């Protein structure tokens, strides 16, 4: 039990691999001599449902993943980390998690949850919940009554088409929201209050426009593989923190991009590949990665990168992809070497 804080710290500090790997905790514990099979409930750490593992050395975690479970088991109230992923769970009824008031992580991904089977008050007692993974289920809409304390919410790879306007209300600490691979046509104003959101992934949906009322703290915005036809006039100038924008595989044309839309400092990566652009849009000199492959670009306009080429105003571009367009290396103007002096890779 004394080892728990050290193990916890390792998990949190070890970066994404440790954080994302549900088996990380167990393997860390195994390497300390603990074996799942030898565990019995109620000997050391407290009670534990027979079908799950509750390591005595880390008594606030309960491992029930990958066991063909069809329902949410009894959860002792001491639990902070609950691993229920990769099962056959079809429902989270109201009350099922009411004893689990200390939960910090709830992993329910890769199950068979459908809308209507998640109770409106199923999560209402989880006031300390930090991460909720509901990805890879069969949800048709964002479940109601999600805890406001969430910092990470994964809803990707479901069948979500409906995002109620109050779906994320009050989640002022939410930093990561994953909604990719769903059937969303419009998120309406649902994202408006997410003042801490830094990563939003709505790729592979059915959006026809850039979502309105995007949070202004965004660092990463992923909108690829939708049906977006236009970029709003104040985008992305409104987002001072925005560093990564991906809008590849959409329906953008030259006309649908306002003149200086991407000429905003701070941008590091811009992916506009697989659209219908005929010209290179004007980009900020701070940009480092620009992906424009598979458009219909017909000319290499150096003015898109450098308005005046002098000793200070050159482009910071390192990678430029223009392959799959209607230009070739011979279209590169002679002054491009000066403007794009840092470009280690230009693909044409
Ligand atoms: C889950 O069920 C499948 C199909 O019946 C079976 O092949 C698999 O071994 C089961 N897994 C466990 C952990 O019981
Ligand atoms: C909650 O805890 C009480 C008291 O330990 C127990 O009787 C009840 O079955 C638990 N409920 C659930 C849903 O686990
Ligand atoms: C956000 O985090 C702060 C600091 O941890 C906390 O005091 C606050 O209650 C949290 N907000 C919500 C909505 O949970
Ligand atoms: C891009 O923006 C900068 C700073 O606002 C400005 O000086 C420059 O002329 C703009 N580039 C183009 C091609 O309009």
Automatic annotation (TrEMBL):
Keywords: Disulfide bond, Extracellular matrix, Glycoprotein, Leucine-rich repeat, Proteoglycan, Repeat, Secreted, Signal. Residues 1-18 form the signal peptide. It is found in: Secreted, Extracellular space, Extracellular matrix. SMART domains: LRR_BAC (SM00364), LRR_TYP (SM00369), LRRNT (SM00013). One of its GO terms (cellular component) is extracellular space. The keyword Repeat applies. It comes from the Eukaryota. It holds the Pfam family LRR_8. Belongs to the small leucine-rich proteoglycan (SLRP) family. SLRP class II subfamily. Affects the rate of fibrils formation. May have a primary role in collagen fibrillogenesis. This is Fibromodulin. The lineage of its organism: Eukaryota, Metazoa, Chordata, Craniata, Vertebrata.
């Amino acid at each position: 039990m004394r080892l728990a804080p050290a193990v916890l710290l390792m998990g949190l500090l070890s970066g994404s691999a440790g954080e994302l790997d549900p088996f990380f905790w167990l393997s860390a514990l195994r390497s300390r001599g603990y074996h799942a099979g030898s565990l019995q409930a109620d000997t050391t750490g407290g009670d534990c449902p027979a079908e799950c593992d509750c390591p005595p050395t880390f008594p606030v975690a309960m491992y029930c993943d990958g066991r063909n479970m069809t329902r949410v088991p009894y959860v002792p109230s001491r639990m902070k980390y609950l691993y229920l992923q990769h099962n056959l769970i079809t429902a989270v009824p109201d009350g099922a998690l009411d004893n689990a008031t200390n939960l910090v992580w709830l992993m329910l991904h890769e199950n068979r949850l459908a809308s209507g089977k998640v109770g409106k008050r199923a999560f209402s007692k989880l006031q300390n919940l930090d991460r909720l993974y509901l990805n890879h289920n069969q949800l048709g809409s964002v479940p109601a009554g999600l805890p406001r304390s969430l910092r990470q919410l994964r809803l990707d790879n479901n069948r979500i088409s409906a995002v109620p306007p109050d779906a994320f209300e009050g989640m002022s600490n939410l930093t990561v929201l994953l909604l990719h691979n769903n059937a969303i046509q419009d998120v309406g104003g649902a994202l408006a209050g997410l003042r801490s959101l830094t990563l939003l992934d709505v790729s592979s949906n059915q959006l026809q426009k850039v979502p309105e009322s995007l949070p202004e703290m965004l660092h990463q915005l992923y909108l690829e593989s939708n049906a977006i036809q236009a970029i709003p006039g104040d985008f992305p100038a409104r987002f001072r923190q925005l560093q990564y924008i991906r809008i590849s595989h959409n329906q953008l044309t030259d006309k649908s991009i306002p003149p200086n839309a991407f000429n905003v400092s701070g941008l590091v990566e811009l992916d506009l590949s697989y659209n219908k652009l005929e010209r290179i849009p004007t980009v900020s000199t701070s940009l480092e990665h620009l992906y424009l492959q598979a458009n219909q670009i017909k000319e290499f306009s150096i003015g898109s990168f450098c308005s005046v080429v002098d000793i200070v105003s050159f482009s910071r571009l390192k990678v430029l992809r223009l392959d799959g367009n209607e230009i070739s290396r011979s279209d590169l103007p002679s002054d491009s070497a000066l403007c794009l002096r840092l470009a280690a890779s230009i693909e044409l």
